[in-house]
Each structure stands twice: as structure tokens, then as C-alpha cells.
Amino acid sequence: MTEPILRREVSRAFDAFPAPMRRRLLQVRDLIFATAAAHEEVGRLSETLKWGEPAYLTEETGSGSTIRLGRLKDSDHAAILFNCKTTLVDTFRERFPDQFEYRQTRALLLPVAGKLPKRELAVCLSLALTYHLDRRGKKAR
């Protein structure tokens, strides 16, 4: 599965970011779609805007938690934002304590330059895209 063509409103949201941040966030977008495609249970992703920023939802299956791409006011890093009521960022922090910078329970921050840590980031994205499946499995035990 390849990532879908950017819809006009989502493209405009990406265009609003400074060029280095836009490039990094588009790399993350590609990885989100590639990671989703590797998990059959995730289904087709919906790409939309939440709070004016690109967001990725597993509406078809309900398997995951929303992933939003943006920036934080006090940072020059690209931000991958998650629902702060989930345990996702805490889980990422436990697995990759030195790989990423984190903000509270809501964001994983990436420098806009340098090599994207694809393997580690794909693990984090996979956990987000299957968050509700993992939680349902724990409740069933």
C-alpha cells in the first residue's frame, strides 16, 4: 500500500510548516502509512486535520489511537502528538529512553535534520496504530 495523495487541506497544513520541519513531517507521514500497511488489522487510515494539523486515524477498524503531526510552540523539533490520556508516550520512553525527546504524555519530538530513526519510530507508530487492539487483548485475559 502506498500513501494516498495529499488532499488539498492537508497539503496546505504541511505547507504552513517551515521547509525543514515539513520535510521531516512528510517523512513521518510516509512511515505512518508504511507501518499501517504492515499491520493488516489496522485497515485503511483516514488522513484529516485535527486542530489544523495533519492527523491519522484508524476509523475503519478502531485499532489505534490518533496520531497527529505538528510542532510545539516552544520547540524547533517536529512533533508527533498522541492522545495524552493513553500510555503511549510513557511506553515509548520506557523502550527508547535516549532515542527521542518527549513532552509529558503527549509528544515525541524529532530533530528536523539528520537521519530519521525509522526502525525505532516504526515501533512507536505501530504501538499507536494498534493501541486499542493491545488494550482489548489485555482486557480479555
Walk me through this protein's architecture.
The chain is built from 5 helices and 6 strands; from the N terminus they run H-H-E-E-E-E-H-E-E-H-H. 30% of the residues are buried. It has a 6-stranded antiparallel β-sheet. The protein starts with 7 loop residues before the first helix and ends with a helix. Helix 2 crosses helix 4. By secondary structure, it is α+β, with helices and mostly antiparallel strands. The protein has one domain (8-140): Aspartate Aminotransferase, domain 1. This is DUF1801 domain-containing protein.
Summed up, the domain count is: 1
**What is the overall number of helices?**
5
Please give the CATH architecture: Alpha-Beta Complex
User: From the helix content, strand content and strand pairing, which structural class follows?
Assistant: alpha+beta
Beta-strand content: 15-25%
Alpha-carbon Rg, integer:
14 Å
Instruction: Give me the side-by-side strand order of the main sheet.
Output: 1-2-3-4-6-5
Q: What is the general shape?
A: globular
CATH topology: Aspartate Aminotransferase, domain 1
> Main beta sheet, described?
6 strands, antiparallel
What is the CATH first-level class name? Alpha Beta
Q: What level of helicity do the residues show?
A: 40-55%
* Unreliable residue runs: none
How far apart are the first and last residues' alpha carbons, in Å? 33 Å
Query: Topology as H/E string?
Result: HHEEEEHEEHH
Q: Tell me the total number of β-strands.
A: 6
Report mean pLDDT, rounded to a whole number. Answer: 92
Protein name: DUF1801 domain-containing protein
